[in-house]
Q: What sequence folds into this?
């Protein structure tokens, strides 16, 4: 009996701890959602209102009416496009590095070393190049930048995943009538699926979160969501309602992506932990 | 017609010379086995035939057509790998159909061929499963199924049974032999297991250090090895090699062991020139029997202590010291009883293999 009640106590304590951690981490998210539904009065009311008096979508309506939501759309376009390009090119490069030892051992190391460069160090030289090339404030400009920045990461990660694929599977496919391209699509891609998904999510989040490049390289046409947010913070006052609504809109795509890919993410990340 | 001809094949990995001039011919429809210790080049040779390794020199022809510079998929071969190489994300059906799909076969033909192959291998009930739900033997069957649906000219097996347990290995070995009879295609099989080589092969190529040490029918190699290496590689338990001297005096030859015993060779095996030379006397365990009252022709008698007696049920292995080395005799189960001390052996000297210890050549 005694040991049973002790076990019960331990279990209760454990759940309490879990609940505490969840509250600490989830409360800001909850608060963000709540603010986005509140009127300005409610936002600043003291004591704080834990639940808005009435759910109203005024903050969202303003964003749509003023056309601010285009920033979300810009972010989606730029992030998806750069992720798709970086994943395609990066996986192909990784395959070459892993299977044909292109450039020996050092090339792979050099590639990942590019990722170690602090972005701030090159943002202004890049800006000058972009001005010269007419890429400032264009979708293509941002896509190009994010692709370039994510490529080393994709190559490095995918190289690890591909090296884990048994060589015999590819050889068997070669003998069975596949060309190298077919081997890549029919064997390597399905075998590395978890790794591909995990890497793609990280790549996407990097592009989605980027503030520095988006701030410097855009003016009015291709403003992305993180830059748009700063427009609501003024010297005199902050538009908390808009900030909250915009943040909710900006978090949703990432939350949905991660939720859908959770299965692959966990497997992909733990795979990468062993090697790569 | 799809025999295999290889001429002057060389393969180097950096400084390592893996294949040092391989020449061989395998007849259409026969079962050839490359056997040898690990690192002898047998797998490299097989992979070169498949086109998975580029060769540095030499030619490979399948069915008379030079395939040396062709890609693997253009060589019309099928290959079974040691680790099965099944695609874990595809069902058994799709695994077997893989090669047909990459060659764009029509769906009805794919269904027909996969169905047939599954029938032959007894895996029809498994077609909808994923490889991870199969046992080792079943996976091996699927791997073989993937090879036979292709109806390729040439089948290559790279140590396909080495990951299976002993019982399953025996079973699958029989199955592969039956399959060869049934489909009658040329098969090339790599193994380091001499029992597999002996039981499966029409023709054995025994490799050593990137060269073919000897080739021939299994029993030929077993009974008439050209070197001590071949003699000791084939046969289980291994052949006994007893050091001594070959002494010839006026038309009669005998092997005089280092410990002094003299074992007469039968007249037909006598050497012509008088004299003596160091020798290794090679005698297989089954040619050491118990000496009865009178010795059969061509036999020599020697007595030794039974150091170790190991009954296996069918045969009993007895280890003794003869000529200063441990020697194994394979006796009938009831020929010896556990408490026996000294045993008189009859050595079948007509079957003895005489090896020159300096060149390892059989004389």
A:
């Amino acid at each position: 009996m005694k040991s049973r009640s002790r076990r019960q106590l331990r279990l209760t304590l454990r759940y309490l701890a879990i609940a505490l951690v969840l509250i600490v981490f989830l409360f800001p998210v909850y608060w963000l959602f709540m603010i986005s539904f509140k009127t300005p009065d409610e936002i600043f009311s003291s004591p704080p209102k834990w639940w808005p008096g009435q759910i109203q979508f005024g903050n969202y309506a303003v964003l749509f009416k003023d056309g601010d939501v285009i920033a979300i759309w810009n972010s989606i376009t730029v992030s998806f496009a750069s992720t798709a390009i970086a994943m395609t090119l990066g996986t192909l490069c990784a395959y070459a590095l892993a299977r044909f030892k292109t450039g020996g051992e050092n090339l792979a190391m050099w590639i990942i070393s590019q990722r170690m460069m602090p972005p701030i160090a090159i943002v202004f030289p890049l800006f000058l190049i972009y001005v010269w090339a007419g890429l400032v404030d264009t979708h293509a400009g941002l896509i190009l930048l994010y692709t370039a920045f994510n490529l080393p990461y994709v190559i490095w990660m995918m190289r690890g995943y591909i090296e884990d694929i048994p060589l015999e599977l590819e050889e068997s496919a070669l003998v069975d009538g596949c060309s190298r391209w077919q081997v890549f699509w029919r064997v390597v891609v399905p075998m590395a699926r978890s790794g591909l998904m995990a890497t793609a999510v990280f790549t996407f989040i990097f592009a989605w979160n980027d503030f520095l490049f988006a701030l410097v390289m855009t003016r009015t046409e291709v403003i992305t969501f993180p830059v748009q947010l700063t427009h609501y913070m003024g010297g005199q006052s902050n538009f908390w309602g808009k900030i909250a609504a915009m943040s909710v809109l900006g978090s949703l795509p990432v939350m949905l992506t991660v939720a859908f890919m959770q299965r692959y993410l966990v497997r992909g990340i733990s795979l990468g932990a062993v090697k790569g | 017609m799809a025999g295999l001809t290889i001429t002057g094949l060389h393969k180097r990995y950096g400084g390592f010379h893996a294949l040092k001039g391989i020449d061989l011919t395998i007849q259409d429809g026969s079962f050839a086995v490359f056997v040898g210790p690990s690192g002898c080049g047998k797998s490299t040779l097989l992979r070169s035939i498949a086109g998975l390794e580029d060769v540095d020199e030499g030619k490979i022809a399948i069915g008379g057509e030079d395939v040396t510079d062709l890609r693997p998929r253009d060589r019309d071969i099928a290959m079974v790998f040691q680790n099965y190489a099944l695609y874990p994300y595809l069902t058994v059906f799709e695994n077997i159909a893989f090669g047909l799909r990459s060659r764009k076969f029509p769906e009805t033909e794919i269904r027909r061929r996969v169905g047939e192959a599954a029938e032959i291998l007894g895996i029809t009930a498994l077609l909808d499963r994923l490889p991870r739900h199969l046992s080792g033997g079943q996976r091996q069957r699927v791997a073989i199924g993937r090879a036979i649906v292709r109806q390729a000219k040439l089948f290559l097996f790279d140590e396909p049974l080495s990951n299976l347990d002993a019982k399953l290995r025996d079973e699958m070995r029989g199955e592969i032999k039956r399959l060869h009879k049934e489909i009658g295609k040329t098969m090339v099989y790599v193994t380091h297991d001499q029992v597999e080589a002996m039981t499966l092969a029409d023709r054995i190529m025994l490799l050593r250090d990137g060269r073919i040490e000897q080739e021939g029918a299994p029993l030929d190699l077993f009974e008439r090895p050209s070197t001590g290496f071949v003699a000791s590689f084939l046969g289980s338990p291994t052949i006994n090699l007893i050091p001594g001297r070959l002494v010839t005096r006026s038309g009669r030859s005998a092997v005089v062991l280092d410990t002094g015993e003299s074992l007469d060779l039968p007249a037909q095996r006598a050497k012509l020139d008088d004299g003596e030379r160091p020798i290794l006397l090679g005698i297989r365990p089954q040619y050491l029997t118990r000496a009865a009252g009178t010795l059969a022709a061509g036999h020599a008698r020697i007595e030794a202590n039974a150091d170790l007696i190991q009954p296996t049920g069918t045969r009993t292995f007895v280890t003794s010291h003869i000529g200063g080395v441990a020697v194994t005799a394979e006796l009938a189960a009831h020929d010896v009883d556990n408490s026996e001390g000294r045993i008189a052996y009859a050595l079948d000297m007509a079957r003895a293999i005489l090896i020159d210890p300096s060149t390892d050549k059989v004389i």
